[in-house]
Amino acid sequence: MTIHRMLRTVLENPAMLDRTPTEVVDRRTASEISDTEMMQVLLDWNCTFGRVPVSGGISADAYEPGSWDEIERAYCRGLLTDEEIGRLMERNKDALQRAARSA
User: Fold this and answer.
1) What's the domain of life for this entry (predicted)?
2) The whole model's pTM is what?
3) 74, exposed or middle or buried, with CB in 10 Å at 0-12, 13-18, 19+?
4) Which residues face 54 on adjacent strands?
């Protein structure tokens, strides 16, 4: 992809520049922010949950990830501790339960 096409893509969809949980965790890994700062941002995050899109009553053969998927991925990669993921799960307990019921 050329620089011109990347810039055009971002200009057409500015949300692509929004901070993500992955970026926040990576900034902590790079020592740009502290553990406390990372956790405060992630605990305040309005998490979204992945879903299988449905069109015309038929489930697509696809998965649209949410921001919680990024948090889970960071944990699986060893970038979040058991305590950190536990706090995040507790904070998002109700939403996680709703997401599990709708799956």
Assistant:
1) Bacteria
2) 0.74
3) buried
4) 59
Nearest to 21 by CA among 83, 81, 96, 88: 88
User: Position of tokens 């941002």?
Assistant: 41
- Which stretches within the chain are classed as H helix? 3-12, 21-29, 35-44, 67-76, 82-91, 93-102
Beta bridge partners of 58: 55
Q: Determine the Cα–Cα distance for residues 51 and 103; give it in Å rounded to an integer.
A: 7
pLDDT bracket for residue 3 (50, 70, 90): confident
As beta bridge partners, residue 55 has 58
